[in-house]
């Protein structure tokens, strides 16, 4: 099948995005899906850039992603043990697939891969009810209190999946055992209830039609599911005779008794209802989004709806309040709550609006206010990340990561409020507001999206009603506080789809002509380029796909017989702001050419370099000196002056590498010599033998300097840092416990203050007060932190951002490591000490590394859990490792990769 179909480029359009603690309980990750690809990104805390951590290829196209944690949420146990420290746990993911398949997966840090917790298959003939093709993708929703999940299949049946039994719930919410709230996914639990299917057509006559959307409601004692449906079909051409055909029901789900009574029916909703959003606590209720209107529903208070345009006059009889000078439609729009009273809406034109819900002291909906923030890409999904970061996923353009800024303006003359006044006064005020809004936009525009984002604010017209179009708060000085919003660009993900017209062509460049002149005909290949159109409207683009990197050639020179080439610095240009290479060494079969750079590149005929032997390595050591390695000699130089020569005539050199002050030499007999440079700043600089490995016959060696504190053997009890990231300490099998620390996370400026309105009746009926975000006050902190990583070779002080101690400084140590592989396939990692009197120490040893193990386990690790993942290892492998490279990638060098080349014989 591979010869018929081949994916030459993975999909780039983003379809779904969620923000969850997937890889680690200490850090949130952005999980994206594109067709059958699942991407896990990390948003760096300082630069707010994307960092791809994992890419998983699944065996089917993903229909939805829903995060959850298997166990009661903090709200379930907060009323019983409010003072108990809450231990966060990793979250699992519900992945749904066509037609009615569901998988529950989590990330296993031990094997660094996905682990399937459960799989559900509901595609039987009885469930299909004679359907030949299913047009309704499955919809998965999870209860906010993590008590159960549901999946809508075939648009007529509801699958209920309980997370834990009633016995588990009583144990967890009891005061005697409060620590059970930290149940981890996949951990040992008592017997849970099995999933079951609910036939919606048998519950209520209104559920016999089309199911539009469903959401779990907040602040209910039992899981309550709100279902938005259309009981009888209609369309625009039949609105004159048939309108308001949508309705809704709320089901109270009792997973123990498998009963689902209808507790709250609502009928005669507009026919163009599209979706619904569950309003978080303390407001509660549901927000119904229609094409031309927005309606707020709550079981205990009257409904409130607004019209977004004038089409609602003839399309619905539902009582709606008009919003003058606001003419938008929500078809193909995406909406998400970014706080308990603010909704971010992106419409099909790319414009972004912020909807604010205003309530009174009795939690009755008072009014809606709209703020136009700007214009972005045509998004397909929205996801709220930390620190006001909003991800706009798109299938038509590049996906964007933007930061939402909220700016308060306390000025009674800049209030965007229209009170009862005549039309002439309104016209004058409108002109004044235009001038003020331009000044505001110039002062708050901090983004580089010049063409994609504008900060125009909607201007109300001259009506006699009091209409708010910006957020306003009463102050003690009887003034109004106005907020303006703006976007700041952080990062983007390039999208080359959906592809339109495409053409394949051969590019014409200097390097192609050079290859055609010098390479033999049977080695010449024609690099082809694929040019395609993608996107639509303002997201349209032309994409060029190349097979390889095409450098820009400045000059060329033929050097026949050359084998390898190196460039090195000298001590004379070390203090320059822009360091440039001083020498170029070109190795040939029996000699070495030395060139000195400058205004012109000239060959160096005299100097301390060895030119009558083949050079196998050349590099800088100690940042000032130069080391040249040939088959029989090792030469230490300062500029072009030779300082020391070490002979290896009895044991020729096979490979060499240098790093910092260390030089590693591998001989043909399989012996590794480690040399240390001493007295760097004077003329007596020399190399001394620091360490020697001759217990085995080694095949390759590499040096690595660690700035990230990932390579460590001790635990640094640093509890002041509030920036979390994944590290090898967390993923190590030896790390069985995690240190618990109480920290305060940075608050979200968009989150409103404590809700002061309402009475205690709802609290008494539907449960006590709950903690909306358990990590906002207490969390579990890993003592290792990989985010404060230096990119230089020295230990740099890192200033802590903790509010309690702003002057605290964390010193990140720099460690140096030697990685070697022997002929029998054993990999050893040695720590090189900074003191030359102390020898290197073996910290990690992996047996049968040449077998291509998926998991690398230390032979001294006696953890019995690893035997399950290792399985049976083939010991008769004939592969030999002949090249090894350990490198730290990423902006802070905290992504350590080991690249190995195997040779099979």
From TrEMBL:
Domain RSE1/DDB1/CPSF1 first beta-propeller: 14-419
Bilayer-spanning residue ranges: none
Domain RSE1/DDB1/CPSF1 second beta-propeller, first and last residues per copy: 551-837
Domain of life: Eukaryota
PANTHER family: DNA REPAIR/RNA PROCESSING CPSF FAMILY
Protein name (database record): Cleavage/polyadenylation specificity factor A subunit N-terminal domain-containing protein
Organism: Rotaria sordida
